[in-house]
Every structure is written in structure tokens, then in C-alpha cells.
Amino acid sequence: MAAKGPLKGIRDWAIHRLVANYWSLPLVAVVAAPLVGALVLWIDWAVAGRWLYEHGITLLVAGDTAQDLAVAIVGINAAFLTLYWSVTLIVLTLATGNLGVRLVDRWLDKGLVRLSMAGLTFCLVFSIIVLSRLDPESSVAELPHFALAGMFALELVNICMLGVAIHDLGRTMFVDRSIAHLGTEAGNVAIPIVAADPYAGEWSCTLAAKRGGYVEGIDLSTIKEELAIETGAVRFCAAPGQHVLEGEPLVRIETVRGDADRLLKFIPIGEFRSSVESTVYQVRLLVEVAARALSPGINDFYSAMACADQLAVAISGHAGTWVDEGKVAGWERDPRFELPGQDFRGLFGGPLKAFRQAAADYPSVSIRMIENYARVCRLMGEQGCPPGLLHYLRRCGEELRDHAIANAEQECDRTDIADAFRRFDQPAL
């Protein structure tokens, strides 16, 4: 799941709520299966069944045998569906209990799981439809050979798909896979920005939040089309992922014409944080997984170190989002749109502090993250990134070093932590 940026408007928010779940696609399958079953039975009755019988392409020798086969397939499909639902719930319960409930939001988005559930549901309903049209006292010539052959073929596909789906669920428990995907996605710049001078004049219009919750996205392209050129500067006061209270400012506009409240429908607000917020959610989720892995009940510091590595991946992909002091992040396509909180500091400032607080009691994790800061600085320095960003990352390393040394109980750990920070001044190997 590559990062596609935050949601764009209320319509996208509603579509995401309808699609990113485990029930919508199976519901479509339940509705479609009777229609497909009726169509297949009609084709069978019209031409296909007679053609198969006349050419000797049949699976069965008697009506009661056909009914027994259909009953067996219905039972197998019901068992498969029950098994898959049970395994899915068990896997999600174990995985989220260990390393964070918010990973569920990502797994709900997995197409293979939803497709598997829809396929199993479709096959079960389709086989029931065919079974309902079978007469055990019918002659072999009167049997729906085409429908029975289709049901048998679907069962073979079902068995293969179940094996693939169970394997995928088993891989879900391997949390390093999710950590790696999070790092890759977080490294993609969802909203390209440039440094701009902040507007210093008076705002003629301020749009306030109509409800409290988390900003899930801002449809900048549509808002640009809605606003006239004469609008002037526009400041989006709350970035995706930020919590707002009812009545807090969302948008400030230098000059506005017409009904400005229409713009609020392009800034969806949800009740809880979710993956649709893109980079800011992914970075925070990496820190959350690391912090949970370091909790006494789990104590999985290697997963925390994997999160530290993926944070380095995400940081290295966001050199272009750095904005110096005194400047404000502006949308690359229209710098009049000010996006405070969507620059590097807005995306990484809070999460990196939270990571420091969680890792300070674990010398091995602190050392790994300090070394990652040094590696990223060295790489970015070679690529000519802004000096302000290099200074910021070095300061993050210093704060983590000081915190970890203060919490370390052994002198050897304090020495190792100090040695890790010296990597900032060592040349590349």
C-alpha cells in the first residue's frame, strides 16, 4: 500500500469507510451469487447442459449422486468460510495484542483478505443456489451439468485460494513486514511543499471546525478550483492527523467571495486517527509499534530497532519538506496555500521526541537510532540537503544521547552511547 496522500474531501472519506472493511466486498458477493447462479442455471437449461451431455462431458451418473456432490460442496464451502473467519480473527487478535491495535486499520485495507472472504462467500451462496435446483430423481440427461461443472471448478479455485489466503494471514503475524511497508510508505512525500514567506496581513475570513475530531485530509486541488485567483493567501491551520475541537480555526483566507463554508466539505474530520492521514500516521505508527515493543510485557527490542531503521528510511525521503525558521510550508502547486504542520518538523518533530522517550531506557535501541541519525546526516550532507535539517537531526541525536546516558545503569552502556554519537563526525567507510 503505497502512500497516496491524505483523503480528499467528504466523498473520499465516505468511500473509504465503505470500502476499507471486511464486510463490503462479501456483501457484494452475497448479492451477486444468486444472480450469477440463476444466469448459469438458465444457460445450462437453454443450451450448455444438453450440449455437455450429448458430447459425454459429464461428472455424474445419477441424480442422487449429483445431489450428494452438491451437498458435500456446500458443506466444504461453509467449513472453509468458518475456518477463514476464525483464523483471521485469531491472527488479528494476537498481532494487535502484541504490537498495536492501529495496525488493524492497515490490515483491513489488504485486498487479498477481502477478496478471499468475498470468494468464499460467493462460492457458498452459489453452491446453495445450484443445490436448490437439483432433483435426485431426475434422469442423467435432465441434470444441470454445466452448473455442476462450474460449481466443481469454483471449488478447486476455492481450495487453492484458501491456501494462499492462510499463508498471507500467517505472514501478517510477522510484524517486520508491516514495519518495512510503513517505512517505505512514510518515505514518500504525500504533499510536495516549498518554503514560503508567511502572510503577515489581516485575514478577512476564518472557517472553524463544525465538529471535533482528527483532520483526515485536505483536498487542495478542489479548494484551489473553488477559490478565485483574487483570494490571496490561504492558511490551513490544522494539518492531517491533527486533532481539532469544535470551533477551532481550520482555514484562514485573505479575501473571500461568496459562501466560504462550502470549503469545509473538502476537509473531512474523523472520530479517530486512521491510515488515510498518510505520512503523519505512518510515522507515528512506527513509533507506536516501537514503544509497544519496548514495553515490559513484550520486551521485543529487535522490533524496536527495526522501527528505528524504518524511521531513518522515512527521514531520508523527506529532505525536500524541510522549512527553515521564519518560513512556512507552502503547497508546491500554489505557494499561496500555507500548510503549517506539514513540513519536516510537523511530520517528525513529535514522533521523534516520543521515540526518544521510549528508547532512552534501552541502550541498544538508543545506540541504533543515534547511529541512524548519523547515517542519514552523512547521506543527506552528500546530497546537499539544507544545513538546517542536518543541524536539527544532530540535535535529535544529542537529545537522545543525553537522555539515554542519564538513564543508563552501567558505565559500559554510557560509553557505548557516547561512542555512537561520535559517528556524526566520522567519515564514511
Automatic annotation (TrEMBL):
InterPro entries reported for this sequence: DUF2254_membrane
Taxonomic superkingdom: Bacteria
Keyword Hydrolase recorded: no
UniProtKB keywords: Membrane, Transmembrane, Transmembrane helix
Segments passing through the bilayer: 21-43, 69-94, 115-134, 146-167
Short name of one Pfam family: DUF2254
Lipid metabolism found in the keyword field: no
Name of this protein: DUF2254 domain-containing protein
